[in-house]
Task: structure prediction
Amino acid sequence: MSRGFTKASSLGLASCHVCHLVSPVAEGHCPRCGTAIHLRKPASIQKTVALMVAAAALYIPSHLLPVLTTVELGEVTHNTIVGGMLSFWRSGAYPIAIVIFTASILIPLLKIFALTWLCLAATGRIRPSPEFLGKIYWMTELMGRWSMVDIFVVGILVSVVQLGNYMSITPQPGAIAFAGVVILTMFSAMSFEPRLLWDQLDEECALGEETVNATET
Amino acid sequence: MIRGFNRRWRALAAWPRPRGGTRYSACHFCDTLHEVETVAEGDAARCTRCGAVLYQNRRASLTRAAAFSLAALLAMVVMHSFPFLVMDAASLRRNLTLFGAAWSLSQEGMPELGLAVIVFTVIAPFVLAGGMLYVTMPLIFGRSMPHARMVAKWMYMSEPWNMAEVFLLGVLVSLLKIAKLADVEFGIGFWACGVVMVCMAAAVAGIDREELWDRLEVAET
Ligand SMILES: [Zn+2]
Ligand SMILES: [Zn+2]
Result:
């Protein structure tokens, strides 16, 4: 209890994820909407790390494997996400190349780094300010969905570019791996419990006060 | 008559409604407990410790949420009736629709990707807009429909999976890719999807989650 703030959890009160009603955790389920309530999401760090590791592992094949194959007049080309971005860059379409780079390469990586950082902070291994980490957490929740754009592009191209012998496009396993990365990072961010960051801070404050008291007496 | 008036008055009364006993709100970032106080229309209550928004009292919240979700549903009908892109190449005309894209992915041996496209661009937006209308429209009159709590719960759970705006960006990128090969044009579906995106954002931002649930609770008692 640092600086006179009362935590809901210290009184055994839990706030519902779905409807935000504060009720005693002993009831088990939210009396208003029926969702299971917890003081903190159970096994939050373990789930976040597990999903994040799975996403990181899939990130490699998602960029090494082709996401689609183009057959143009009998000539077969395999396209990766990076290859598609580079061809936009070479043809001078810089804004679209930057959009693809950000959505498909940068955001998943940043999300994996941000989640690692948040987990380290929540377990007390590093000590940045919780306000700043709160912003990072909010960003990871907000940005992740935009990576899905490449999967939609694959779907659209496969659907539209079906011109018989002249040209056709088929989806490849890289697309599934990439969709896996996006969905896993979204679940990983949802499993993270931001209140752990503040618990950690309070614990350190309490420890600090104890040592001060100990030296005074 | 008096009863009906009473119901209506209760629904339109200032929110958060002061009720018997003290009510609490806990910050979702730092878990600091706050006593719920009534905030003026257009204002937000913030956490005294970390500054995160606890709840907001939006202007004309129920009307805005209901009107924008109805508009989003109507735009959704248009979005599904017209193509997003129309392409002319090699004397062939091809149209792009959401269901068409999902169907092609399944036909090409990737039904799981087809399903993902349908869930993120058709089901999630429909649950969000339809659920919002189902819950907020009767609340304007201080009433609630059967199973409104379950619908509201599903609506808020589908929120992070609604990717209409991401699909729009995908259409733009694809258009630039295809423009080299053939004549492509935006169809009415594309513009309708833009309207869906804007209306949905306005509907969700129109009413605070805490307010919606509070009013629902009041209407049901
Ligand atoms: Zn609840
Ligand atoms: Zn707070």
Remarks:
- The beta strands of chain B are 24-26, 33-35, 44-46, 53-56, 85-89, 92-96, 183-186.
- The longest helix of chain B spans residues 111-140.
- Confidence is low (pLDDT under 50) at residues 1-12 of chain B.
